[in-house]
Amino acid sequence: MLKGINPLLNADVLQALRAMGHGDDLIIADTNFPSDSVAKQTVLGKLLRIDAPAAEVAKAVLSLYPLDSFVNDAAARMEIVGKPNEIPPVQKEVQKEIDAAEGKAWPMISIERYAFYERAKKAYCVIQTGERRFYGCFAFRKGVIPPDAE
Fold it and tell me: pTM for this one?
């Protein structure tokens, strides 16, 4: 364990988060998402795992990972098939973690299921969680950390 780093963040995940640059996408996926096959198509090319609920994983990742403030789709969720405006509890929980990490209400857009798969294939990496609830799938676009004020 390391001071100040959430213990859910294993070495493989930390390496991927550090290697990513501005504009790269990170996918947090539930257990039903085709994570392995999609991860093979990402930049990293292999699946990462954190066996915890989606909101806990989002909290851990967002403790280190800045969201992109230059785009309107830096946080996205897979929408429910046939019910694009319905937001299930798992997505509400992740929204709370996003808002807490960013220190303000942060918009999370919805993406149709198959469009989400396509975005995921172009991502830097996929983290499969232990989340068993449906639609616990999210895309986060990495932002920047500004230089220290002089």
Answer: 0.95
